[in-house]
UniProtKB/TrEMBL annotation:
Coiled coil: none
Protein name per UniProt: DUF4271 domain-containing protein
Residue ranges crossing the lipid bilayer per the database entry: 226-247, 267-288, 309-328, 340-358, 370-392
InterPro entries assigned to the protein according to its UniProt record, in alphabetical order: DUF4271
């Protein structure tokens, strides 16, 4: 049956409307919006964050809305094998931090160019870290921060104005730990002095120490005794404390890192490690001297040489706690000066021990003898050069 004209027209309109509605709804479902995951911050952004103290949050810094701050933050992704160039103008005191660890501090007002991946602290794993820029007496020049390549940044600036950044680490951390260990060291020396007062008097007799006679009491006494063992451990503890305080991290040596993996922040563990290594070195030197004396045919000098080495080592251990105490007291005000002074103290201890041993051996046999001089170089000078390279000049 044929439909009337107006009904047919109405039916066509209804069908058209239904088709149009289906066409509109279906694409809307297919193109449903999904937020993309945030991209990894692999380069420096122009957006900076500031700390909201009330909410304890990092919020986006809006110039003209927020008050200028001393510190600004930004999330960055740092990989050790991927360059992260950074160029900026700095006033004296401007510092960069990665996860609250100081990695750079500007000493002069100039433009610096650096590779952030080279400043990543060893204890921080590669990945996303919080970069902080801090100006203690003002606000950093955020507009000068850019991620241009280091070479182009330096080439585009006058040579007198471009400065190559160098990593700088904070002063000794854990002052209470160092002072506590110093207190233990002082009490230990006091206990040894009270218990073994006659023995200590024989070791540190000034007339024998600076005399030239060959009948000195200490040089004819046995080198291995309970008193000497205790004093060697205390000397090793003093030396280990000083090494740890001035950040002379022996674990930078690949061979040592294979056997010992002690983090830099574990102060007590590092002190114990260094104390053990130094104690082993002091007693292992007796075996080394015996071997070299057998090769050179000078076995008669072994006991005299080792006892003098032991006496000089134990005497120097009395001054190391004083050097460490001065270092901890002055490091905050004169970090560079006291670091050099502490390294000089270590160098004096090592060189002075060799000179003292050579002087004592000269009283028993002339060092003008080429054979004896070669023996002294093999047993004292060569180990001295190795220790100076590892402990002083490397750092």
């Amino acid at each position: 049956m044929a439909l009337p004209g107006f009904l047919r027209t109405s039916w066509l309109l209804v069908c058209s409307l239904l088709l149009a509605m289906v066409g509109l709804v279906a694409p809307a479902r297919a193109s449903e919006y999904k937020q993309l995951p945030p991209s990894s911050p692999s380069a420096l952004s122009e957006d900076w964050l500031i700390h909201d103290a009330k909410r304890n949050l990092l919020v986006l810094y809006l110039q003209g809305y927020h008050q200028p701050a001393h510190a600004y933050y930004q999330w960055v992704r740092v990989e050790r094998d991927q360059s992260f160039p950074l160029s900026f103008a700095a006033q004296p005191g401007l510092s960069l931090f990665l996860d609250n660890q100081l990695v750079f501090s500007a000493r002069t007002a100039t433009t610096y160019s650096l590779d952030l991946s080279q400043l990543l602290p060893a204890q921080l794993a590669p990945g996303t870290h919080l970069l902080a820029v801090w100006q203690p007496d003002g606000e950093p020049a955020l507009a000068s921060f850019s991620g241009v390549s280091v070479s182009s940044a330096v080439a585009g600036l006058p040579r007198a104005q471009a400065g190559q950044a160098q990593p700088r680490f904070p002063g000794p951390q854990g002052q209470n730990v160092y002072l506590g260990l110093l207190l233990v060291l002082g009490l230990s020396y006091g206990a040894v002095r009270t218990t073994y007062q006659p023995g200590l008097a024989r070791i540190f007799q000034l007339d024998e120490l600076f005399g030239t006679g060959s009948d000195q009491v200490f040089l004819v006494k046995p080198a291995f005794s309970l008193l000497n063992l205790l004093l060697v451990v205390l000397f090793a503890l003093s030396f280990g404390l000083l090494l740890t305080a001035i950040h002379t991290d022996l674990q930078n040596l690949p061979l040592l890192r294979r056997f010992f993996n002690v983090p830099e922040t574990a102060i007590v563990a590092r002190v114990v490690l260094y104390t053990g290594l130094i104690t082993v070195f002091v007693f292992a030197k007796y075996l080394y001297i015996n071997i070299m004396a057998y090769i050179f045919g000078l076995q008669g000098l072994v006991n005299i040489q080792y006892r003098e080495f032991l006496r000089t080592t134990l005497l120097s251990g009395l001054f190391l706690p004083v050097a460490l105490l001065l270092y901890l007291s002055l490091n905050a005000s004169y970090p560079r000066t006291v670091a050099w002074a502490a390294s000089a103290v270590i160098g004096i201890v090592l060189v002075g021990t060799v000179l003292r041993v050579a002087r004592t051996l000269h009283t028993y046999a002339s060092l003008l003898n080429l054979h004896l001089f070669a023996y002294l170089c093999a047993t004292e000078v060569l180990p001295l050069l190795v220790l100076l390279k590892l402990i002083v000049f490397t750092y």
